[in-house]
Design brief:
about 160 residues, alpha+beta, two-stranded antiparallel sheet, about 30% helix, binds magnesium ion
């Protein structure tokens, strides 16, 4: 068994869509990024790469690369899951904490969970932990300027 830990943070900006776990969340702002800014899928991808002892997603998808500008982050996760398959690992469980002051995310989590499960070959929902926290008004996240995400994964070798 291997564990992995991923973290990411993106700044909120007007005129962007707020994409989280491959789902568009209705909000007046969205996350800025070279990609679609999906902070959850980036942290998740990094957690999986970490568990495999590989470098972070920036080394596979450099933000200096024009051809991937605005890329759907589901493609990033798909690439990482392909690597996982190639190295003969499977996901035991994943635990995700999204941190942002607004909007309230809980109502959208069933859809996000469904989206995540779909990307992982329909993995059982009990293997996906999804939580939302605020930063209690502290600092930049607390001021609603950014959204962060922490993801922990457990993967196991197929035998
Ligand atoms: Mg990112």
């Amino acid at each position: 068994m291997r564990t992995g830990l991923g973290f990411d943070i993106h700044r909120f900006e007007e005129g962007r869509k707020f994409i989280l776990g491959g789902v568009e969340i209705p909000f007046e702002k969205g996350l800025l990024g070279h990609s679609d800014g999906d902070v959850l899928l980036h942290a998740f991808s990094d957690a999986l790469l970490g568990a495999m002892g590989k470098p972070d997603i920036g080394s596979f998808f450099p933000d200096t690369e024009d051809s991937i500008k605005g890329i759907d982050s589901r493609k990033i996760l798909a690439k990482v899951l392909e690597l996982l398959e190639k190295e003969e690992f499977y996901i035991e469980n994943v635990d995700i904490t999204v941190i942002c002051e607004r909007p309230k995310l809980l109502p959208f989590f069933p859809e996000v969970k469904k989206s995540l499960s779909g990307m992982m070959d329909g993995i059982d929902g009990t293997r996906i932990g999804l939580k939302a926290k605020t930063f209690e008004g502290i600092g930049e996240i607390g001021a609603g300027k950014a959204c962060a995400c922490i993801v922990s994964v457990l993967i196991e070798e197929k035998s």
